[in-house]
Amino acid sequence: MDFQVVVLAGGTSEKLSPLVSKDVPKALLPVANRPAISYVLDLLESSDLKDIIVVVEGQEAARLVGAWISSAYLDRLVVEVVAVTEDIGTAGALRAISKRLVANDVLVISGDLVTDVLPGAVAATHRRNGAAVTALLCSVPVSGPSDAASSGGKDKAKKPCRLNIVGLDITRQFLLHVVSGTDVEKDVRVYKRKIRAVGQMEIRSDLMDAHLYAFNRTTLQDVLEQKEAYRSIRLEVLPYLVKSQLRSAPSGGEGTIVDETGNVVVPPSSNLQCLSQHRAIAPSAFKQDLLASSGGGTHRCCVYIASKNKYCHRLNSIQAYCDINRDVIGEASHLSGYSFSSHNNIIHPSCVLGSKSTVSLISYLFHN
Predict the structure, then answer these.
(1) Domain around 239
(2) Which CATH number characterizes residue 211's domain?
(3) Could you tell me if residue 69 is left (phi over 0), alpha (psi between -120 and 50 degrees) or otherwise beta?
(4) Which residues contact 165 (CB under 8 A, 6 or more apart)?
């Protein structure tokens, strides 16, 4: 499969302080006695995606991560670890390695993702639909979406959980609208042109962006080059592609270009206006009609929605760290590779219980 894989491993995230440090970067934070990034690397290996670029923020963090990967995945994966400047964001990290991307499609995955959804399934969906981008969406964890998690109990009590809003077509394959939870207030605005174009849109607030994306390389590089101020894939790159996919380019003197804000109304004579009729007349052809090129300016934004029985969580807060450690020794124990019982737990053999030690410290880490 002609995919290049990029793992965004981060560096020393403030959200996880004091768990992370210069000696233990985020990627090497232990989850059930395994470095967090090992869950992503094992997942990629199981999908036969073995040519990987791991992007780490900071030279020292990159050195530590590279040393561990070299010893743990020797003769298993071909991994290039690249150090980038700290605090440049996910889009900034991709921009920094853009020249290294040469395959037709690029699979981008966050190094803090713990899931059993195979990246190969997302890649296959992306190729099948000929998409510009395909995003993995998962059910929101019981504790709330990872991106909305707060780092302190008081903040969590004061700030209500804001869910991401996504709009899908009737087949639930195409992403037509996306609003980050941080941008959602009381109302969500959906432009009439989108409704007219697709005839029907399903609005969902129970799905989480898992930070696993398949991109067409050329499209991705163009956006990163043209939008130099973009720092986030989730908050900027993905919304931009979704907003611009329903543009109508001039063709034979008809049609109007719609800007990325969606403020220009599409004339009734445009191709987009006819899509709802095509859907009613030929439902099987709706997928192609919806995102067929209108003068060459249209692309497709797709989704892969994981089934509800799949595990999907991101390790991007202390609360999420506790939740994931609890889950991988419980309902998601298949991810850790351990078999647990009352006589076989995750306390490492090297651990020694001192005369003045208490169990409550360990209990807090894994159960609080």
Answers:
(1) 3-144+161-249+297-335
(2) 3.90.550.10
(3) alpha
(4) 177, 178, 179, 181, 184, 188, 203, 204, 205
Report whether 199 contacts 280 (CB < 8 A).
yes
pTM: 0.78
Residues 197-254: tens digit of each pLDDT: 777 888 898 999 999 999 999 999 999 999 999 999 999 999 999 988 866 433 333 3
312/302 Cα distance (integer angstroms): 19
What rounded mean pLDDT belongs to the chain? 78
Residues contacting 283, CB < 8 A, separation 6+: none
Domains of the chain: total: 1
Predicted confidence (pLDDT) per residue in 321-348, tens digit: 999 998 998 888 888 877 766 666 666 6
Burial of 52: CB neighbours in 10 Å, binned 0-12, 13-18, 19+? buried
The two beta strands, 175-179 and 78-84, are: unpaired
In 181-320 the beta strands, taken as DSSP E runs, fall at 202-204, 207-216, 301-305, 312-314
Structure-token pair, residue 262:
């969606």
The rounded distance, in Å, linking the Cα atoms of 185 and 189 is 10
